Structure to design on (286 residues):
């Protein structure tokens, strides 16, 4: 019992000390993080720039055409110029509104073919960049597909000489420029990852199993001690319903005589026959 009590007290003390400590509890809560990201995008834009030509190729070029006769279909003269690809502006005029001339504009290949023709009808029907125009003056703008040498041909079918003034300039030139522009777009985007928000809290541990086990052992020891003390207490005799026993003097009988003559009552000592089971005097069982 003492051992149980000591053991219970020790366990209770340990449990009490444990209850004074703190318990740390950690909880996790998923959250979604947002961040501001910079997204850079590059775009290409085609810009067409139109410029007006200011450089003259042929300026106030004078072309003298002699008079012709019936034997010929005309006197002709050609002026050439190197032109870049793009637009070209051409104009010509004679000294009089009544003096008309034939005009062609030819490429280098066209000029070679035109020069090798033998008949007037072939010359007059030849088609080039500009097919035959018969006027005293003309002005036009045309597109040159590739750079090269081009020919301006004049033919006089009149019976009198004619002077032609020719002007050729770059006209309206167009150029295409590709510009690269980088644009930056700012946008708020949800990040594709999930972070953890951790919350930590503390609280007392409280009485544990050791404390309650010690209390239980002490209770068992106390109960066992009470039971043992109750068992060791002296018992009190209950009052008898029989008559009090009174000692009376009687004759002293020797053992040999008692055996032959009879027996004595174990309670009152009265002499009894050997065959009786109860005392004739006090009634006690023998």
């Amino acid at each position: 019992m003492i051992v149980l009590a000591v053991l219970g007290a020790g366990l209770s003390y340990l449990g009490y000390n444990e209850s004074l400590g703190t318990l740390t509890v950690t909880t996790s809560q998923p959250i979604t993080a947002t961040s501001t990201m910079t997204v850079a995008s590059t775009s290409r834009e085609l810009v067409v720039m139109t410029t007006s030509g200011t450089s003259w190729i042929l300026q106030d070029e004078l072309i003298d055409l002699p008079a012709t006769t019936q034997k010929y279909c005309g006197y002709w003269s050609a002026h050439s110029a190197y032109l870049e690809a793009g637009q070209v502006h051409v104009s010509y005029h004679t000294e009089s509104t009544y003096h008309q001339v034939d005009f062609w504009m030819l490429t280098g290949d066209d000029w070679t073919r035109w020069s090798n023709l033998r008949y007037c009808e072939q010359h007059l029907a030849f088609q080039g960049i500009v097919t035959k125009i018969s006027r005293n003056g003309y002005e036009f703008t045309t597109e040159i597909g590739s750079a090269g040498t081009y020919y301006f041909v004049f033919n006089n079918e009149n019976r009198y000489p004619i002077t032609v003034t020719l002007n050729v300039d770059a006209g309206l030139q167009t150029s295409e420029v590709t510009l690269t522009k980088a644009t930056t777009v700012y946008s708020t985007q949800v990040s594709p990852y999930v972070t953890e928000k951790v919350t930590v809290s503390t609280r007392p541990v409280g009485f544990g199993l050791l404390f309650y086990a010690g209390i239980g052992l002490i209770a068992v020891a106390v109960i066992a001690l009470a039971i043992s003390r109750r068992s060791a207490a002296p018992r009190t005799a209950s009052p008898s319903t029989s008559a009090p026993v009174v000692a009376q003097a009687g004759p002293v009988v020797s053992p040999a005589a008692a055996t032959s003559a009879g027996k004595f009552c174990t309670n009152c000592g009265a002499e009894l026959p050997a065959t009786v089971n109860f005392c004739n005097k006090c009634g006690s069982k023998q």
Remarks:
- The longest helix spans residues 209-232.
- The chain has a mean pLDDT of 74.
- Residues 54-170 form a domain with the Jelly Rolls fold (CATH 2.60.120.680).
